[in-house]
């Protein structure tokens, strides 16, 4: 009873909103005429903003009242216009002094080309009708008082009884038009992948430039200096052996320094301990070298893919540096675990908190590093601490390393039966008997069951046996295939969810 | 009798260089191998007085050498091993020291440049002492620097502690720091008192005590 009363309340509220939408629809229609008739395009963004505010409310209500989550379908907004090297902003063939016009144009195009805008509009125009269905029960009491047996009254009563189902229908209808289509999900994903690819390429180029610069200014320069000193020693060795000896020790020092520089460089490219021991021990080594007290827990059964390992290592290293330098922390806890095929790392410190990726370039760098692998960084850092940073790297583990859930026992029995006994009905009791029957064998029935039956039952049993054998084999082959397919589909769905 | 040495190093040039260097200083190279399994076999069969081992060896090119050395020390407790590497890690140092039998060394390959010091380290390890790279010690001390008792040491005592942790005797420390041996003795006594360690004259024991202390301090 109580749920019914709340359902009535929700229906009335949604219905009232739907009726109010009539005014909004009228406004939209009124503005459409000057917009496209006389080219007053500047009316478009505010109208879209209005429609989107209304559909945002509808999505929220569908989620909280009707229990149907409706995801937001819009394409990501365009990035702000960037000036050209000469300081002007370009939009198509025009140049502008300020980014205002290019931005406006981009926004306009973004709204206009997004199919979700039009689906929103369609929903808005039809919503008063759908809301009308929700308000139908209101007619019931009125009808009772005036004409109890009029068909409309009966219809209204039926609608009142069916109200919970109408609400469900309303939720379905909202979801139908307001949730993203498969196409828009894919479009968003492709856009995101494009951006990630660009950032990864950028990041890699920057790394190579850094390495080139370090080699050029460091080890290379030192080797040149050593070569020159050796030349000088060659000159001196006969005339002034003491001076030559002094120079030799200088060369030795220089070679030591060059090695140290190379070692640091190598550590920045791919730390040796990571190559030698894998992520777990590399992070332990990192924790030992850190000025902070660090507790490391690692739950890894296999080594993740090498590039992923390296990305995770450098991200953790950066987080440790951040905690020590900005966070004022004393103790950090690093936790590395796997979650399906994903690698999950959590770094918590007892510092003062307030970390913000938009301010620090460090966190931004980590985000970029992880983005190349579809990784997601989550930061919780209230002022006063503690700071917890979690990142997930999907697809970190090889497919082969993954432990698939085994076949359920019942299905495994069917598979075993299929392979073990499928031959029996199919060949000796089915196909062979069929051949014997066609050839008209009259004696030597031995163990071919069908031939002992009376004549009219023989063919049906033969056909049944063949069918049974085929079914057993199909089941034996099909069940495992279906099982692994389902596991794969689950992983694929997890990705799509992450991708949003 | 000269010391018998087994060398494990995969790069031909470096291996030959090490052999020449050690033989020039009067050590006898019993075997020079280039992979982890060969090393383990040589160590267990030949029982050399000391082994000089590169961390990264074939076939896996990971920490094959270190693993072989640790395995050999499990089979032959106290087998002297000096590990060489292009990089030093506290993690590896701790693993080498973990069994507490001493007779281990862990040095950067660069230290080979200074032949006298390197051969000295080899002899020290062969004699059951330790030879830790200054860089490892610096890292160990840096990561425990905030700890209270360590902060109570005077700068001079810290210098002495660092050299002590590398595996040097009092007389070697006195030469390095241009102090009299009795002054060094006074400093070491001060360090032991401040860190709450039992004083001892045995070089190897001293290092292990210091490292055990540092380990415990990190908690």
Summarize the main sheet of chain A.
5 strands, mixed
What integer is the average pLDDT of chain A?
84
Structural class of chain A: alpha+beta
Helix count of chain B equals 11
End-to-end separation of chain A in angstroms reads: 39 Å
**Rg of chain B (C-alpha, Å):** 17 Å
Q: What is the general shape of chain A?
A: flat
- Largest interface, C-beta within 8 A: A-B, 21 and 24 residues
Task: State the end-to-end distance of chain B.
Answer: 45 Å
> What structural category characterises the helix and strand content of chain B?
alpha/beta
What portion of the residues of chain A fall into strands of 2 or more residues? 5-15%
What integer is the average pLDDT of chain B?
A: 85
The quaternary organization reads as heterodimer
Radius of gyration of chain A from CA coordinates: 36 Å
Low-pLDDT stretches of chain A are none
Share in β-strands of chain B: 5-15%
Order of helices and strands of chain A: HHEEHHHHHHHHHHEHEEHEEHHH
Largest sheet of chain B: 6 strands, parallel
Total DSSP E strands of chain A? 7
Describe it.
The complex is a heterodimer of chains A (500) and B (219). Chain A has 500 residues and is of the alpha+beta class. Helix content of chain A is 67%, strand content 8%. In chain A, helix 13 (306-325) links the parallel strand 3 (293-299) and strand 4. The relative contact order of chain A is 0.05. The mean pLDDT of chain A is 84. Chain B is α/β, with parallel strands linked by helices and 219 residues long. Helices cover 55% and strands 13% of the residues of chain B. Chain B is built from eleven helices and six strands. In chain B, helix 2 (36-46) packs parallel to helix 3 and helix 8 (155-166) packs across helix 11 (203-218). The mean pLDDT of chain B is 85. At the A-B interface, helix 10, helix 11 and helix 12 of A face helix 4 and helix 6 of B.
